[in-house]
Predict the 3D structure of the following.
Amino acid sequence: MRYIAKEYYLVEPFKFVLKERIIDKSPRDFLLLKPIVAGICGSELLYFRGEKEPEKLRARLPICLLHEGVAEVVEVGEGAKIKPGTKVIVNPMIPCGACNPCRTSRENLCQNAKYMAATADGLARTYFLYPERRVLPIPEGVDIEVAALTEPLSIALNAFEESGARKNDSVAIIGDGPIGYLLALISSYVGGIPPEKLYFIGVVDEKLSLASDFASTINSLRNHAALKEIYGEIDVSFEAAGGRAHKTTIRESIDILKPGGKCILLGISMGEVPVEVSKIVNRGLTFKGSTRSRMEHFIRALELLRSQDFQDRVKRIISAKKFVINDVNDLTEAFKYADTEEGESRVKPGRVMVYFP
Ligand SMILES: [Zn+2]
Ligand SMILES: [Zn+2]
């Protein structure tokens, strides 16, 4: 059959343009997918606001944004086994398969990968073709809106794994955004870190309170004394804030570590961030960057979501306000909402979700 895809391109900061593309046939091992629901990630707001490095903006725009989401299989190419009508989560990364990281089971480090809403078009399209090997069917009983958060969950799973944190370790997460919250949840749920040894640190009480039944929360702005109390006490810290706060959050992630402690860096910011190197050297600290995730983390995330209790906890970060996308204005409104100070993403840990009818 013939499908007319509507594609929402960000052509310049704050401006989406609609284009149509005709899709005739799904190639071998490919699926024709129809996005249903997607979350707006902070990394995409950087493109929307034009705050990405100018050379990246020049090279990557126009681009269809959105990389966390769920789609329905509409048609399948020859060789594909999934049935039409199946709802799937989309792994937004297609690794090259040929480089050293790809050949050594570290596809998340592939530097030639196509990643939606970064180096490839994302889910802001009504139809698109995608290889079957990069999607996973959603298990029965998993809410599709929660399933749309499989990608950020997979990132938290990979980062926690890379930290090597063990049950008796004290763990601190700096950054109260969705990734910070999901890291706290994984530390508790998968890592078995008890609330008195698990610190969730941020600057917005309403965001922090969502984890208060499984973590000790600290507002580092309003209660800096509480943060100081854990200086030198933590085995593993995660820096999951980045952005404008980076200078402060890196310093805090160093100061809270015990001698021999480890810091996992997830947050990103433009340019250089000053670091007091002697603190790292003298106390023998380890720093490790963590980026993206592998297919195995998506599979694990979906397994975890089979538990209703886990699903309910993930659901806490979904914004109450939903957007149905019928035209360019709807998508612009959704991004503006996710971006503004009034938007729930700033004051609540709200992933703003958009629906494609
Ligand atoms: Zn993301
Ligand atoms: Zn590769």
In short: The mean pLDDT is 95. The domain at 3-149+317-355 is CATH 3.90.180.10 (Quinone Oxidoreductase; Chain A, domain 1).
